[in-house]
Specification:
By secondary structure, the protein is mainly alpha-helical. The protein has two domains: 244 residues, Rhopdopsin 7-helix transmembrane proteins (Up-down Bundle), CATH 1.20.1070; 130 residues, no CATH class. Helices cover 76% and strands 0% of the residues. The radius of gyration is 33 Å and the shape is elongated.
Length: 395
């Protein structure tokens, strides 16, 4: 495998990391989010520093042959620690116990990392090996132990992570389950990577060199496949969750349309709400539409008639509506009647007469209530019947 074979999976995990960074900035205190971000950052670093061109550059810059080996192994150990910390946070439980266990795993792999550095310093690896260091130095004192130590740490983390994701996938559905299965598959490939490396090293111990290809060719390929599955597993739920959120926001904007059209022109801006930015987001458009609706209702308060609302509520109940829907229908009928009453009172006599009286309150307390009311305006037969009835007087 050449440089691009390493840089491509590094780019894939880096892309997943980029998707996670905004959420981390917003919720940096979330230990689970920090664990996922650390996992992706370390995965990106491992592939980048494992690429032969990067190995050559690091060795040349430091002047130490094979110094990239302990660097990559330490990154792999940190990657393993991040897997286990992620497992602890996903498992949940008391916050203090979770923090304590996370610190133990981090401390354990920090000790492994120090041991890797010490073993490399004690060993003798003068010949630079870009792709086959594990098998070339498989019988070299201290370097041999360094190789076994990093592979053992990677194996422990791979087993734990695959088990966690598979167990978690049995408890959830949808895209989250698909993502977890992808992540578990990725870690199973990581275990296959460690197995290929161990097999090649064990073969060298027995005097065989015909299995070196498992370490130099097969293992890096397995690692690339693992990175692809892992990146997809992290990106899939996040990307589709964002798409779902976008669709839900636009759906809310569209469903508020009937109520907004009913009340537009009543507020202080006469239905022409000034845009706060040149290219408003979907959230801002929904907020503006809700603001227009509330402004229109403020203008209608003196014309709201509780008797009209009570009659509409009773009619909606007789029509088979549940309590929430019946309240929405009643509010919609009262708003419709108030719009007509205001149109029949161009001089604003009701404003002078009812200025001291508190206005009747709608049942709606949030966007969902406004959406129910808006949908009732379009679909409720009770509202349709009220529209064709005689205009109520404003008293």
């Amino acid at each position: 495998m050449n440089g691009p074979d390493y840089y491509l999976p590094a780019a894939a995990t880096g892309f997943a990391l980029a998707l996670k960074v905004p959420a981390l900035v917003r919720n940096w205190r979330d230990p689970l989010l920090r664990s996922v971000t650390a996992l992706l950052a370390l995965g990106t670093s491992v592939f980048f520093f494992s690429a032969p061109p990067t190995i050559v550059r690091v060795n040349r810059l430091t002047g130490v042959p094979n110094i990239s080996a302990p660097l990559v192994y330490v990154l792999l150990s940190a990657f393993s620690a991040s897997c286990l910390v992620l497992m602890v946070n996903w498992r949940g439980g008391p916050a203090e116990a979770t923090r304590r266990t996370s610190r133990l795993w981090i401390g354990g792999y920090a000790a492994v990392s120090l041991a890797l550095i010490a073993l490399f310093a004690l060993g003798d690896a003068p010949v630079e090996r870009l792709r086959d260091l594990d098998t070339y130095y498989a019988n070299t004192p201290y370097i041999r132990e360094m190789i076994v130590l990093y592979l053992t740490g990677l194996t422990v983390a791979g087993v734990a992570m695959a088990w966690l994701c598979l167990r978690w996938s049995l408890q959830v559905r949808g895209l989250l389950r698909a993502g977890l299965i992808c992540i578990a598959t990725g870690y199973l490939f990581n275990l296959a990577y460690a197995t290929a490396k161990f097999t090649a090293v064990f073969a060298c111990w027995s005097g065989r060199t015909d299995l070196d290809g498992l370490s130099t060719d097969t293992a890096p390929l397995l690692a690339s496949v693992a990175a692809g599955f892992t990146a997809v597993g992290f990106c899939l739920p996040l990307a589709f969750q964002r798409l779902t959120d976008r669709l839900e926001i636009w759906s809310t904007y569209r469903r508020l349309g009937p109520l907004w059209h009913e009340l537009r022109g009543l507020g202080p801006h006469g239905g022409h709400t000034p845009r706060l930015v040149w290219w408003p987001s979907a959230e801002l458009l929904v907020i503006q539409r809700e603001s227009d609706i509330h402004d229109g209702m403020l203008c209608l308060y003196p014309y709201f008639d509780g008797r009209v609302r009570a009659g509409a509520y009773a009619a909606a109940v007789r029509d088979g509506s549940g309590p929430d829907q019946a309240h929405a229908v009643a509010d919609a009928v009262m708003v419709t009647a108030a719009v007509r009453a205001r149109a029949a009172d161009p001089e604003g006599n009701a404003l002078d007469r009812d200025a001291a009286a508190p206005p009747a309150a709608l049942s709606g307390e949030g966007p969902r209530d406004l959406v129910r009311m808006s949908l009732a305006l379009r679909h409720s037969p009770v509202v349709a019947a009220a529209r064709t009835a005689d205009r109520p007087s404003a008293d």
